[in-house]
């Protein structure tokens, strides 16, 4: 028995440990890599030899990769609520519309992207115009001459207002009736 710094180690165990360690190191050093082109011309790498293969010499045996910080994967942050905005794209603010039938086409702009189950309500002169819908364009009919205000509100699937546009003013010009006597 060998005595090493207060520990008794059997010489057979010590010999077995040294032999195992040397065989592992020599096995790792004997790994060879072979390269060849297959019938389609694709370069193939393998650790088993192949007819026509050339042995590739590795210049470094240090094949360890540095540790990567994975703490970011463990953080479970709550999703931040998305701040939506809505606005009137057309007609432009203070635009004059010349349309004898009184038709006005209103288009809206929503950011970020419009989601399923959202609805938009159009207000003409402070009053809801039709029911809230899932479309971002509206057609107003028979709008009277004069100054008018538009506003749109965006509702989520719980029918809560999540965005409101600023007021937009437009002017409707319609051909008047000429009463000649």
List the helices and strands and how they pair.
Blueprint: E1 2-4, E2 7-9, H1 11-29, E3 33-37, E4 43-46, E5 54-56, H2 71-74, E6 85-90, E7 95-98, E8 104-111, E9 119-124, E10 127-128, E11 137-140, E12 146-155, E13 161-164, E14 168-173
Parallel strand pairs: 7-14
Antiparallel strand pairs: 1-2, 3-4, 3-5, 6-8, 8-11, 9-10, 9-12, 12-13, 12-14
Provide a compact summary of the structure.
With 181 residues, this protein is mostly beta strands.
Task: Provide an overview of this structure.
- Strands 7, 9, 10, 12, 13 and 14 form a six-stranded mixed sheet that branches. The protein has a three-stranded antiparallel sheet with strand order 4-3-5, with no helix packed on it.
- It has two domains: 9-57, no CATH class; 85-173, Sandwich (Immunoglobulin-like), CATH 2.60.40.10.
- By secondary structure, the chain is mainly beta.
- The protein has helices at 11-29, 71-74, and strands at residues 2-4, 7-9, 33-37, 43-46, 54-56, 85-90, 95-98, 104-111, 119-124, 127-128, 137-140, 146-155, 161-164, 168-173.
- The chain is elongated.
- The relative contact order is 0.13.
Name given to the CATH homologous superfamily of the largest domain: Immunoglobulins
What gap, in angstroms, lies between the N and C termini? 136 Å
In CATH, the topology of the largest domain is named: Immunoglobulin-like
Round the mean pLDDT to the nearest integer and report it: 81
Oligomer: single chain
Number of strands: 14
Biggest sheet, in brief?
Answer: 6 strands, mixed
Class inferred from helices and paired strands: mainly beta
State the helicity in percent bands. Answer: 10-25%
CATH class category of the largest domain = Mainly Beta
Unreliable runs: none
* Percent range for β-strand residues: 35-45%
By DSSP (H or I, 4+ residues per run), the number of helices equals: 2
CATH architecture of the largest domain: Sandwich
């Amino acid at each position: 028995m060998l005595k090493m710094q207060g520990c008794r180690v059997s010489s057979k165990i010590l010999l077995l440990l040294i032999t195992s360690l040397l065989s592992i190191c020599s096995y790792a050093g004997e790994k060879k890599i072979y390269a060849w082109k297959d019938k389609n011309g694709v370069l193939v790498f393998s650790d088993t030899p192949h007819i026509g293969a050339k042995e590739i010499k590795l210049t470094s045996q240090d094949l360890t990769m540095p540790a990567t910080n994975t703490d970011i994967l463990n953080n479970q942050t709550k999703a931040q609520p998305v701040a939506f905005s809505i606005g009137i794209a057309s007609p432009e603010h203070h635009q004059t519309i010349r349309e004898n039938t009184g038709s006005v086409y209103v288009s809206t702009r929503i950011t970020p992207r419009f989601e399923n189950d959202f609805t938009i309500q159009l207000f003409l002169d402070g009053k809801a115009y039709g029911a809230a819908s899932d479309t971002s364009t509206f057609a107003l009919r028979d709008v009277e001459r004069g100054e008018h205000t538009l506003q749109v509100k965006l509702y989520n699937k719980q029918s809560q207002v999540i965005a409101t546009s600023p007021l937009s003013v437009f002017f409707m010009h319609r051909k008047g009736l000429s009463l000649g006597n």
